[in-house]
Amino acid sequence: MSIIKRLNKFHISSPDFKYYVLFLFMAIMASCNDVAEEKPIKPNIVFIMSDDHAYQAISAYGHGLNNTPNIDRIGNEGVIFNKGFVNNSICAPSRAAMLTGKHSFVNGKVDNVRAYDWNQENFAKALQRNGYQTALVGKIHLDGLPQGFDYSNVLPGQGQYYAPDFIENGVQKTYPGYVTHVTTDIALNWLDNKREKDKPFLLLYHQKAPHRTWMPEEKYFTLFDDKTFTPPANFFDDYQGRPAAAAQEMGVYKDMDVVYDLKMLDKEKEIKTKYRGMFQRQYDRMTEEQKAAWDAYYDPIIKEFKAENPQGKDLALWKYNRYMQDYLRTIQSVDDGVGQILDYLKENGLEENTIVVYTSDQGFYLGEHGWFDKRFMYEESFRTPILMKYPKEIKPGTVVDELVQNIDFAPTFLDYAGVDIEESIQGESLRKLVKGDASEWRDALYYTFYEFPGEHRVKRHYGVRTDRYKLIHFYYDIDEWELYDLEEDPSEMHNVYNDPAYTAVRKEMHDQLKVMRSKYGDSDAMDQENLNRFLKAKGLSK
Question: Is the pLDDT of residue 95 over 90?
């Protein structure tokens, strides 16, 4: 029944009054519609994480080693963080910190040995409870069925480059092809065919590459063949004044396996190395067609290497260039996959309302200090690339120079989604920071590393970093302190802990370290407990 007819029932004869009431009703309805339209639309989230991708190997960071146009797009269309760091530079603990927003000694995943407790809260669970459809695809390196995800299809452990195994919602299967492409295809298939398109979504799209052993796809076998890489200035570091750095086993020259790492799998089996058999098993996963293409490229290199038999400095430089070529080739495939995901979002009208983040689980050494791998609190492994875009809120070309950390991802996503951030989360939302509000931002970062005795022999340590200084304590079978002035010594070659000129700085940094350990709940007792559990798990306890 019309409003006018309803008013006539009450014998209200004034037409002006009738139309006034009608006007008022229409205004109220319009106001209700406006309220409905203003209801916030939750953003979609695509969180891209690769493995061991050094910030030096992303062209947006300006080091000139390679070209990553698609990863760069994220920073160009949004924000690039120049001081992004991790809490614990090793695969599984870094991912646990990302999921929980908590330091390793709080979430329990302090090393790659101890099991991860999926029953604890993570940001995917919180988003799932608040209407998000969630998916995890690729490498997570946390045993057990992932919780918080409507769909999961993940690599067991480290995964394989060729014919990779995946575990789809708990069921293991082998996929033909190259792992980077397979991961991308699974992610795109979920976006296009498996998700409910009337719900906001969270997609964790995680690549294995460029993790060791850096096996490139055929498309990029010859990329960088025309380039000779110049090693960093401290490639032949003598580690003077840094006994923990001297004790490691991750040197390109002395520790890099020429078969396992550098592909010198000769048919004659004359090159015998510690990890030859491990690489043989990876090679054997290929199809005959893939092996033929692989051999056509690598066999001539093997033949030349055996003929020349480089030694000493020549061998060190040869190994460095072989390492850099294959490492960067695997990244090129990762960049291709990022481009496919970005193109999908754009072509399907999702770009404007989707947060896209690109990061790595930690940094990596590309010859700095003569090393490969990670683990140390020194800059190249402590620091990680972080690029993010969200057209609705983040201005293109934004640059953030404040100290951010991987524990900040969880609260950031919850903040953007309008979900309450639990007090137990130790990270901070990056949302205000990218808007230019750094008035109450942190002035220091805390770091821990526990996996010793273990591969690469990197000592247990913890430390604090401010914008300019870094204090590190190495402990367990050693008791050494290191202090670096990052403004004067960005390559961390000179430990000034005992330098009288830095007496005041040393005291300030010790005070800062006490504050950080108290703030986050770490202690010597927790260090000892984590050590005892690690030694027991490794069968080394007394």
Answer: yes
List Cβ neighbours of 445 (8 Å cut-off, separation of 6 or more): 85, 403, 405, 464, 465, 516
Alpha helix stretches (DSSP H) within 220-366: 243-247, 252-255, 276-283, 288-308, 312-347
Q: How large is the angle between the packed helices 312-347 and 179-189, nearest 10 degrees?
A: 20
Cβ contact 315:251 at 8 Å: no
Residue 164 burial class via C-beta count within 10 angstroms: exposed 0-12, middle 13-18, buried 19 and up: buried
- How far apart are the C-alpha atoms of 16 and 36, rounded to whole Å? 30
- What's the number of CA atoms in the CB half-sphere (13 Å) around residue 219? 12
| Sign of the dihedral defined by the CA atoms of residues 47, 53, 54, 56, in that order | negative
pLDDT reported for residue 471: 98
Burial 465-481 (b: 16+ CB within 10 A, else e): bbeebbbbbbbbeeebb
Question: Do β-strands 469-475 and 480-485 pair in parallel, antiparallel, or remain unpaired?
Answer: antiparallel
Whole-model pTM: value is: 0.92
Residues 49 and 207: beta-carbon distance below 8 Å: yes
Residue 110, token pair as written in the block: 């302090």
CA distance 240 to 442: 33
Which neighbouring-strand residues pair with 48?
Answer: 205, 358
Give me the pLDDT at residue 40, please. 73
Q: Is the peptide bond before 210 cis (omega within 30 degrees of 0)?
A: yes
Model confidence over 101-146: pLDDT tens digits? 999 999 999 999 999 999 999 999 999 999 999 999 999 999 999 9
- The residue with tokens 């979900």 is 419
ω into residue 15 within 30 of 0, thus cis? no
Distance between CA atoms of residues 425 and 526, nearest Å:
19
Q: Where are the alpha helices (DSSP H) in 190-251?
A: 243-247
Answer whether 450's CB lies under 8 Å from 88's CB: yes
DSSP assignment letter at 425: -
**In sequence order, what are the beta bridge partners of 473?**
462, 481
Q: Which of 334, 305, 44, 351 is nearest to 209 (CA)?
A: 334
Separation of alpha carbons 359 and 375, rounded Å: 17
End-to-end CA, the chain:
87
User: What would the two tokens of residue 287 be?
Assistant: 């199809």
| 3 state DSSP class of 504 | helix
CA 324 → CA 63, 445, 527, distances in Å? 14, 30, 36
Provide the strand spans (E) within 362-503. Answer: 386-389, 398-400, 404-405, 445-449, 460-465, 469-475, 480-485
Q: Are 123 and 410 in contact (CB under 8 A)?
A: yes
Are 211 and 158 a contacting pair, CB within 8 Å? Answer: yes
